[in-house]
Design goal:
The chain is mainly beta. The protein has 2 domains: 32-140, Quinohemoprotein amine dehydrogenase alpha subunit, domain 2 (Lipocalin), CATH 2.40.128.120; 148-257, Quinohemoprotein amine dehydrogenase alpha subunit, domain 2 (Lipocalin, Beta Barrel), CATH 2.40.128. The chain has 1 helix and 16 strands. The strands form 2 sheets. It has an 8-stranded antiparallel beta barrel. The longest helix is centred in the first third of the chain and has 13 residues, at 9-21. The chain is globular, with a radius of gyration of 22 Å.
Length: 267
């Protein structure tokens, strides 16, 4: 419970004096070298097509050389259609860890702004290309190559997106638990939320992890409806970033491995 009312005016003044006198912690400046290696990324937003904003999301892998150049491969979902996009580009990191980048891809030219976080282990980014409004995160892969066993065991996940029937659109959120068996099979259960409606269902399916740590999965609900997941394993497989399409729903999120808490120390 807060006890501010019990602190004397002199005590507050002393505390402020000590705070202002404390030496500032120097921040190590960022450089292009701060962004080096392979990262997984995922983002969602909208793309304006024919004067109309349509839902879009992306997931993929980007490789930064630490000297201002990068390449990437992404699966982009636009209005229910998946496109695989490859590209290369240039980036520049400022001393305050904010950054700008531009790229050329098979889908055209684009740009994005980002900020380096967690000592270069992650980035938060926003696409600044014309007609695009989209933001997301990047996380280091944590390994050079991946396989089925990279994604093994139970994971908790959550994501947000939309459900559209072609004329109306509603917000959608989902959380769940998914278990990868390390041999290409998966099972799971989820709880999905629409305005005024909640759905709980189980599912099973199959998944594939590529050597570059990008991955795909397909599944079927107990009622027969099918869906697909595109994801990228990060943090050495301890987590993943994903986009998912199920029927008329699409959403973007993250998953993390479920681990039992450590036992309490023996007294």
């Amino acid at each position: 419970m807060f006890t501010v009312g019990r602190v004397s005016g002199g005590g507050i003044a002393l505390a402020l004096t000590l705070l202002l006198a404390a030496p500032a912690v120097a921040q190590t400046p960022c450089t292009n070298e701060s962004v080096r290696g392979a990262y997984g990324f995922a983002a969602d937003g909208t793309l304006t097509v024919g004067g109309r904003a349509v839902s879009t999301n992306e997931v993929g892998r980007a490789d930064f050389d630490g000297a201002g150049k990068f390449s990437f491969v992404a699966t982009v979902l636009i209005a229910g259609q998946n496109l695989v996009v490859n590209g290369t580009g240039a980036y520049e990191v400022s001393a305050d860890c904010t950054c700008t980048a531009s790229y050329t891809s098979v889908a055209g030219n684009g740009s994005f702004d980002f900020v380096v976080v967690n000592g270069g282990d992650g980035m938060i980014y926003m696409d600044t290309s014309p007609l695009v409004v989209m933001g997301g995160t990047m996380t280091k892969l944590g390994g050079s190559t991946c396989s089925l066993v990279t994604m093994t065991g139970p994971y908790g996940y959550g994501g947000t997106g939309i459900v559209s029937n072609g004329t109306t659109t509603a917000s959608y959120a989902e959380i769940g638990r998914i278990n990868f068996d390390g041999e290409g099979g998966l099972t799971g259960v989820f709880s999905g939320s629409l305005p005024g409606e909640k759905t709980v269902a189980k599912y099973s399916g199959a998944y594939k992890v590529n050597e570059d740590c990008t991955a795909t999965a397909t599944y079927a609900l107990e009622g027969g409806q099918t869906g697909s997941i595109r994801f990228v394993a990060v943090n050495g497989g301890a987590s993943a970033l994903f986009t998912e399409t199920t029927g008329n729903a699409s959403f973007t999120g993250a998953m993390s491995k479920i681990q039992a808490p450590a036992p309490p120390p023996v007294e």
